[in-house]
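Check these lines:
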Amino acid sequence: MVKNVASKLGFLLGMAAMTVLCFGLWELLHAPLTVRAAEPVETPEPEIVYVEKTVTETVTEYVNVPQLVTVEVPVVVEKQLVVDRPIIAQDSAERWKGITITPEDIELLACLAWREARGEKMLGMRLVIEVVFNRVLSDKFPNTIYDVLYQPGQFAPDYGVPELDEITPTEAQYEAVRLAITETPILEPDVVLFATTPLYGEIFLHVGGHYFTRYPDSW
């Protein structure tokens, strides 16, 4: 009997537990769904970091640096340095003060140097020009370069030799004229003659194929 009571009591307890379980499940299924919002999460602001950047600027400075340049000077330029204006005392050697040398005179002197001494070295051509200057300053000859060069019987060309105005000088002859004008004279003032043989006067200098002589006392 006791066994039957215990069996029934266990059955009732099981049913009660089943009832509670079913009711709880029903409540769970039929209960309103409540969604809980998530709590806001604070996001830290990003940190701004300033980085120093050094910028190097390259500056090119253009400097006017003089350079040594070799220039080939044409003949016409060399002439122009001499004949661009009359050459007077401040341009010439001390002895030639009082001689005014025009561009036309420069041309004639260069032509004379070509005709009389083109086969000589620079010194020989220069001395021919000095003879002309000594004559201009002498009281025994005309007092201008033109008149000295065209004095009858003095610088007249030999047969077959061109006249002065028919000659085209080279740079060497213009340089000889420039040196004769600007450098200290080599010939003494009374050396007014030159020739391939010492026909007249005392010999002062023998250069190349020419003898440069003084004015003869017998003249």
Summary: Helices lie at 2-30, 75-83, 103-117, 122-137, 145-149, 171-182. Residues 55-90 have pLDDT under 50 and may be disordered. The beta strands are 191-195, 203-207, 210-214. The first strand starts at residue 191 and ends at 195.
